[in-house]
Each structure stands twice: as C-alpha cells, then as structure tokens.
Write a structure and sequence with these properties.
Length: 435
C-alpha cells in the first residue's frame, strides 16, 4: 500500500491527451482529493479520441465523430485547462517548468508524461517517399481513407502493408474493405501471421480466411527496399527473394517505439520506456509516466488493458489516497477484423511440462488450444468460437485448479464451470483444497 505524501491541492500537468492521459483525467475528476488545478497539453489537434477505433473507422464501419471520448466543453465544465495542438518540447526539472513548441511556459507541481509511442520504421531505403504511411492517429487514418478513395495509381490502386501483427492486419483489412478493387498485399517477416499471439494452426486458419477475402499474404517476407514511381511517389516494394510488388501506397506497421525523447532530454531514467516504480513515479518524485511511454520492471506496453490498471493506481496516488502498487499481469489479445474471431493469451510454444489440450473442427473453422501446468491454465489460443475466452482468461489469472473439469474444458465455459461447481460442492474438492 502506498500513501501519497504531498498535498492534493497542487497544479498537475498531464502531457499527452491520448488514451492514457484522458483516462487519468476521467479517473481524477470523480475524486475528492483531485489536484485543485489540472492542465492537459496534447500535441494532436483533436481532443482525446478512442485510438482503438481507428481500425473500424478505416474499414468504413464507424463514423469519425463516434471516436471522440470527450470534447473541449467537457474539459471546461470540469475546470480543466486543455491545450491542444502544442508539443511539450522541454522540461526544466530544477524549477519545475515546461516549455511547448509554441513558446508557452508552464509551471507544475506534479507532471504526468502520457506521451504514448510512435510507429517503428524499418531501416530500408525508400521509406521517406510520398505514399508511405503509418497507422497511429486520426490524420493517418484520414490519409489512408483518402488514398483508398483516390488511389494514386488509378484502377483501384495497390497497397502493401508491412507487418503481419494486429495493427498490420487491421490496416490491410481496412484498406481492402474501403478500396473498391484495390489490391492489398500484406508482408509478414515471420512464418505466420500474429506469431506472438497465435500458434501455427490458428495462424493458418486466419491466413486462409483473409486470403479468401482477397488479401495477398506473403510470409517469410524480407523487406529490401521501396522503389519510387515515375511521379516520385512510392511505386513498388522489393523483397530479398527478388519479389517486386507494385505499390502506390505503403503502410508500415511493424511495431511501436515509446515516445521518450522529452524524458531523455530532462535526464530522467529511460531504458526502452520511461522507467517507473509501482506508483508510476519516475526517477524524479514530481514526475510520473504511464501508458505506452513508460516501462515497469522491464515491460513496455502496447494494449490498453494494463494501462487502465496503471491509471487507477496513479489517479489514486495523485488524489492522496492509499492504494496498492501497480502489478504486472498478462493481457489477452483480440483482433478487430469483422467476421474473424480470435482470442489468445499466455505463451505460444508449449514447454515440456505443459499439458496441451486441443480441439479442431476444420469444417466449422473452429480451433481451441489450451496450455496447462499442474492443472492450471497458462495459455489459450481460440479461433472461431471465442465466447469462452474471457472465462479461460479469468481462470488463468485466478490460478484455479481446473483438474476437476478437465474433461469439459475444451467444451467451453458453461460445461467446465458446471463441473467445477459440482466438485466444489463435493466434500473432497480438489479445487477447494487448492484455494
Ligand atoms: C489503429 C490502432 C488500433 C489499436 N487497437 C487496439 C486494440 O484493439 N486493443 C488495445 O488494447 N490496444 C489497441 N491499440 C493500442 C492503443 O491504442 C494504445 O495502447 C493506447 O492508445 C496507448 O495510450 P497512450 O495514452 O499511452 O498513447 P496515445 O494514445 O498514443 O497517446 C499519447 C498522446 O500523447 C501525445 N504526445 C506525445 N508527445 C507529446 C508531447 N511532447 N507533447 C504533447 N503531447 C504529446 C500524442 O500526440 C498522443 O496524442 C491500437 C492502436 C492503434 C494505433
């Protein structure tokens, strides 16, 4: 338990009006001990929006307005100063003052860095060419939507997405759905799609489904260079095996890099991310960091689930409440491609002590694989019917001994839970004894 040791009536400045920064504000406004003055500075021109929904926006499944989390009026109503379209360029820790690229200076008592991350870029020639995009913010999504409606190459155009992880897949499917007759290729360096979340069977099912929809998928793809077209824009992508793919639009989605330049300039402790302790406090007790820009016990972040838990801890801490420290926990993965259902968590490759339970119905495109250690679930890969995914995840987090329901485990949550309940009611219940 950590008790904040400073008065909550201070000026709190939050750098970044993204998912983490905004959620922190939402958590603070309801707290009696909230800092008396809160200022939020965001580089993007729009007030906080749901970044996760950029994928359905690109795919044409959502409207732009539906992404907004809160507008500027809401901030004003909460008595919070919101400064948008300005980038914090420097922090002077000695005098606790920051400067923005617009020349504004602002004193703080407490500072929260919620600067997120930026798309990683592979070191290949041609990446600077016009027509090469990333997929991180509203401007990126709007540029891709514009391209899909006005392809530079005409006749539907041809796009190449580099990266076969969650983001690359969502970008490729979004472009395919938006672009009428556009040829969309997806390059994956590994031997299978989503290799960090899926085993070979599930990745194979996903690949077949996406191929059937018309995506052109290349695994083992080693990117060599991008070629300029006659108009000086990107015209093609070359792979190390000699393949040349025509491309008048390229989307780079190979991963993310935490935005730490500001923290580094301020001489905070930075590895890959800004190093924080379990109260999300950096090496400077007046400065906190959370979200994709921070690093806790060697871990950096790319999904919102752990970030929401960080927000709870930091909000309580900033409001002077007693709170348990942040604890690392596994996260589950879902893919936001309509018509494709997958759910995965935990390790992908079984080790010799794992018991592997698997079920595959190729006709239905249904696949479930569970990894258990001493009766406890450590990992799951579900493709097709994923309804029981959250139940499996709960059992894994709680470390429940699933021995009593082993026979029904692959049938899903309802059957397995019924067996567990039955065994809990019996006088010699292994699950009870373990708990
Ligand atoms: C297309 C897409 C789909 C995604 N889908 C999922 C999903 O399905 N599930 C999931 O869990 N996660 C998903 N994510 C990841 C999720 O969006 C991020 O984990 C989350 O946004 C991280 O929040 P954050 O606040 O740390 O960073 P961000 O949301 O990126 O916010 C950081 C903000 O800080 C601003 N900033 C940076 N530097 C400065 C500065 N110096 N001064 C002022 N402002 C600054 C940035 O402009 C940005 O607005 C997706 C991401 C993308 C791009």
């Amino acid at each position: 338990m950590h008790q904040a040791t400073y008065p909550p009536t201070e000026h709190l400045v939050i750098v970044g009006n993204g998912m983490a920064g905004h959620r922190l504000v939402e958590a603070l406004v309801g707290k009696p001990g909230r800092p008396s003055r809160i200022t939020v500075i965001g580089e993007e021109p729009d007030p906080a929006y749901n970044r996760i929904l950029l994928s359905p926006l690109l795919a044409g499944e959502m409207e732009r307005d539906a992404l907004t989390l809160r507008d500027a009026n809401w901030y004003a109503d909460q008595g919070i100063e919101l400064i948008l379209g300005e980038r914090v360029s420097d922090i002077d820790r000695q005098v606790q003052r920051l400067t923005t690229d617009a020349g504004r200076t602002l004193a703080y008592d407490r500072l929260v860095l919620a600067t997120g991350s930026s798309p990683a870029r592979p070191p290949v020639p041609g990446l600077e060419l016009p027509g090469v995009h990333v997929f991180r913010d509203l401007d990126d999504a709007e540029a891709l939507i514009h391209y899909s409606q006005n392809p530079a190459g005409g006749r539907g155009g041809s796009a190449v997405v580099i990266g076969g992880g969650l983001l690359g897949l969502e970008a490729a499917e979004g472009l395919r759905k938006r672009g009428q007759g556009m040829r969309v290729s997806l390059l994956q360096r590994d031997d299978r799609l989503m290799n960090r979340q899926l085993d070979a069977t599930a990745a194979g099912l996903l690949e077949s489904e996406l191929r059937e929809r018309g995506l052109d998928i290349h695994t083992h793809a080693q990117l060599e260079r991008l070629e300029a077209g006659a108009d000086g824009r990107v015209g093609a992508v070359h792979l190390a095996d000699g393949t040349r793919l025509a491309a008048d639009c390229v989307v780079v989605a190979i991963g993310i890099v935490p935005n730490v330049a500001l923290a580094r300039r301020a001489d905070l402790d930075v590895n890959r991310g800004i190093v924080v302790d379990e109260t999300l406090t950096s090496a400077d007790p007046a400065i906190h960091a959370l979200g994709e820009c921070c690093e806790f016990q060697g871990t950096t972040y790319g999904l919102v689930e752990p970030i929401w838990r960080q927000v709870e801890v930091l909000a309580a801490h900033l409001a002077g409440e007693t709170v348990d420290g942040y604890v690392e926990q596994p996260s589950a993965t879902k893919l936001k491609v309509s018509g494709v259902s997958l759910y995965a968590f935990g390790p992908i490759d079984p080790d010799p002590e794992h018991e592997v339970l698997a079920y595959h119905d190729p006709e239905q495109g249904d696949y479930r694989r569970l990894l258990l250690r001493n009766g406890r679930l450590e990992g799951a890969v579900l493709y097709g019917d994923t309804a029981s995914g959250p139940w499996y995840f709960e059992q894994a987090l709680a470390g429940v001994d699933l021995g009593p329901c082993r026979a029904a485990l692959l049938l899903g949550a309802t059957d397995a839970q019924a067996l567990l309940d039955e065994s809990n009611e019996s006088p010699h219940c292994p699950a009870k004894e373990a708990a």
